[in-house]
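re: ur question from the group chat, yeah i did fold both. here u go
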Amino acid sequence: MVINTKIKPLLKQHSVSNTRMDYTQTIKEYIELERQILSRLDANAINAVMNALDSARRRNATIFIFGNGGSASTASHFVNDFNKGISEHLEQPFRFVCLNDNIATVMAIANDIGYDAVFEFQLRGRITKDDLVIGISGSGNSPNILNAIELAKLDGAFTIGLTGFDGGKLAKLADISLNVPVMSMQITEDVHMVFDHLMMAIFYNTLCGINHIKAKQQ
């Protein structure tokens, strides 16, 4: 790469100093904490969620999922992995719908009604007792998540809560709680994605006959 001679002085002026930090110990501590938390997850609760998801698929139910911030990204990722990743290989696909994906709708509800209603409003008139609803909240106390789960329960739908910390109100409200027992939002969100990929990998095998571990390429 050739650097313009006029730019060289600027690069030198703004170059990173020679001082280097050694993050290896804190990296190892983070990984070790995550390893410990993974070992404490409730396999029975995960199994119950997987059965609920597959039951919803077999009865052609809609699976609504939603979250805020990083949890919104997790919700979108679930939709991708189930609606495309797994369903690509199934005659009877999953029917996930992410309520935080349509930004215009979310912003309109937030502006005209209130942010606490952004998910609840979208469920009104759409949800049935055969549907399944997944709310993702690291704290377990996000008002817009709780409002939507409460509405879902009133309409007779089955509910699942993905939480961290002590689970908050969502862990008590949902029919099944997948809690990450750690006082860290970062590890909570890491493990919420583990839930997604763990279930996807197992369904690949059990529903599609595909091993997620690929053989080495020669």
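okk and heres the other one u asked abt
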Amino acid sequence: MQLVACERCHAQFEVSSVTENKFRCHCGATVWNRAHAPVDAPIQRCASCGAAVPAEATICDYCTSPIVRDRRQLTLICPECFAACAGNARFCGHCGVEFRPQPITGASDLACPVCQTAMTTRSIAEVAVQSCPECQGLWVPGESFDLLVARAQSLPEAPRPSQGLGVARRHAADANQDTGEIVYRRCPACRSPMHRKNFGHASGVIVDWCGPHGTWLDADELERIAAFIRNGGLERAMAAHAADEEKQRKELAAAEAGAPRPPIQSQPTLALFEHLLLTQRKTAGKHTGQLVDLLHEFFKSP
């Protein structure tokens, strides 16, 4: 893997298969596709979790991953500080930046989960997403969702492609929209059925979510989510959810504290013991009979 970064917005791109010597970043800046010589920098961070590590550490104290120091395995160059890092690193071992390459603007190899049209990569608020040209839906990679929603809240409220004809095309593309049937769409990346989630538990915006890969938003859902958060809906929903959890915890604690002690024996078991003990009482001697009487009373008591 070979990474380069935009000098303006620091977006990262994987360019090992890119032949052009430059391309356009999502923020509009020009990114040069050129390799940098590795810098011999000390390893200060875990390549797996990004936690700080001592100078001579061999294992990360936080995630227990091995600290790779063999120069033959340091094949990835950090696009920010140019330190040599492990080939499978998720974080730079020197500056700690996370490696999160984005697709280059243009054609995408992912198909829309609604209408199966080939999607294109574009930028919204300098965040790379895949967009369907037919239904105007958006595929947002998992690590970009929070950033996209946060930036969408500050976008000017102006007419968007999701309004007008864009919305009409979206409903036409979803063949089961009119019947009211619940449709579980498939993740564009892994093709597994995605989970349907009511964003914030109370927004009414049902998004399609694949944990490992990302979130699908229909044409108008990004705007609706941003408005929900901007109006305080997410904050109120989180407070209500925390209050419900606290109420359930208290109710469970009260139920456990006041629960009656269960009987030692069930009724069928007690009846069997009574039969056996009374049989022994008739055939036993005086002292044995007294012991049988005590056992009988013990098993009858609650």
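fwiw on the second one: Residues 1-103 form one domain. Residues 158-176 have pLDDT under 50 and may be disordered. idk if thats what u expected
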